[in-house]
Known about the structure:
Chain A is mainly alpha-helical. Chain A has helices spanning 14-30, 35-60, 74-80, 82-101, 103-117, 123-144; strands at 153-154, 157-158. In chain A, β1 (153-154) and β2 form a beta hairpin. Chain B has helices at 6-16, 19-36, 43-50, 59-76, 78-84, 93-104, 108-141, 146-164, 168-181, 208-217, 221-224, 242-252, 255-270, 276-290, 302-326, 332-342, 352-355, 357-388, 393-412, 415-433, 438-462, 470-482, 485-498; strands at residues 185-186, 193-194. Classes of the chains: A mainly alpha, B mainly alpha.
Amino acid sequence: MGAPKRRIDWGEAIIPGIALFFGIAYFIQVKGGPWVAIYWPVMLLIILCPLWVMLLVSFVFPKSEPVERSPFSLSSFWKKGRKVAIVFLASIGYLVAIPYFGFSITNFCFLVSIFRILGGKKWSQNIVVAIIIVLALHVGLIVLMKLRLPQLSIGGYTI
Amino acid sequence: MEFPGIDVMWSGLGLLFQPHVLLWLGVGLCAGFIVGAIPGFNDTNFLAMILPFTIYLGAMQAVIFMMACFAGSQAAGSIPAILLNIPGTPSNAPTCLEGFPLTRRGLAGQALGCSFVSSGVGGFLSAILCCTLTPIVGFYALKFGPAEMFMAALFGMTAVGSLTGKSVLKGLFSSALGLFAACVGTETELAYTRGAFGFYELYEGFPLIPVLLGLFGFAVLFSLVQEEFLVEKGRHTFTGYGPIIQGMREALRYPGGLIRAGVTGFIIGIIPGTGGAIATWVSYGQAKQWSKTPEKFGTGHYEGLVSTDACNNGVTGGALIPTLTLGIPGSGTTLVVMAAIMINGIRPGPTFFAEFGKEAYAILFSLPISNLLMFVVGVAIAGLLVRVTAIPTRFLVPIIGVFCIAGGFAWREMVFDMSLVVIFGVFGALLSRYGYSVPAFLLSMLLGPLAETNFHWAITIGGINTFFSPIAMFIFLLTISVLLLPPVLRKMARRGQER
């Protein structure tokens, strides 16, 4: 009987991949900069490179098959991470909407929709909880702390 | 620069006993107790979430509030461990071994009482040691020059990196990546803007608060969202206040165990990157080794409970020493505490005591008072805390999300910073999932400018020879030896688990 086949967990490539992408983008941006200003990042690059290579080696030649979690794949990610993906996409939607619809309305829509998506069956309960939180945040952040959060003007009123 | 004398110490004590300062201390304790009782959401997540709003408190009150919160959460983490067999924080895992068997025997109240007294005594002992040693370390830290400061920063980053990642390699990579991320923004020598990618919002580098909120606050949503309830429905048990007093007496039957566990927690807490999760296992193993009745351990033995809970709160005082005197936070929570000081325009480090003596002493003296008040607050709100764990995650997740994003805006009032919270939240979740160290990444981002500036000054002042001073070389040797520490500590903790 042969040794069990080692499987590569592609998820392990995400962080080194982000590091590589960031490093390349960074050095393209600072290319031609004065040496005094860039010697420190260059020194760090010299430290990061061997660590990155060692990570790459441990990624390509894993010591044993991962036991704590299954290897990364899009189908299993969607199956298990549906809620994670929804929270992420809703956060993106929140960030896009907030400059146009203001803090309070965006918050209300975000909270009600997430309550519902994550399993809140009763609309009335979802709406009441969302209104309480939005009011608390509005009073705390905009009225008391005087933060200039984005607000929507409707007929002379700002909310 | 002179180190503050006894008169400054008295002034610091006077500052602490102002009603509004004591009020924030009490609020911090209550908040810590509530947060600690929620499994999966720890004090670091909570403190990161409220950090932007502490600007309005001022540095001293913010830190006193946060340290009280830290102490409260460490103690309250034992409540779900004892009643539900679910550790509220990672450091409460050994508490389950002794606490839950006591609950199953119908002694939940006694276990809670024993836990509150142990936490209070361990924390108080650690606070006294912290009050005694911090000024001494602070006095010697004043002798640090640029080379020594660079070496101290290097030591902190290496220690936290090597001890908090899933492997030493991933931990060190996290530290190096954090240092690299700190290179974004305008550098101090020529005011040359590096790697801002055309965003004027990044000219001062990645802003601290949105990054911290993302890495510690927003990132936790991705793990919380997987659960419907933090604790299974119908598993909440509370037996009333009467037996709690009986449990308190049980804890006091082991004075030696209380002292040993408190001191163990304090010593391990000083080492950056270790924290309660390792310390409690080490203490549990030691207690069993010294016990006259080791066979009772694991069956619901008060001596075992004393060893874990006194040690757990013992860590709090130890972790504060490197944070205040060297500017090197030892854990995620002390990192947030340091950030709270920094956003008020103060940098903790060797000159902290000399420049802000009164405030520094007030912070130090707040520790023993927090620990004394802790078990009073704990006993008073124990019944409520058990119900906190019943909040459904469908409400908790979006509320935390909205708080984090709004908090990201609060500091510089830029919508761009809200986006950074989400970006760093996703990045933090990925770091955690694949075994990298979030505290190491953030600590390096925080210490990056300090390390760079001191390295440059040291080279400019005396060239490479500056790094060969006795203190710098001593810290360098410590840095090398800390790389050998993870296997030793893991072996000690494993021995504690096996016992």
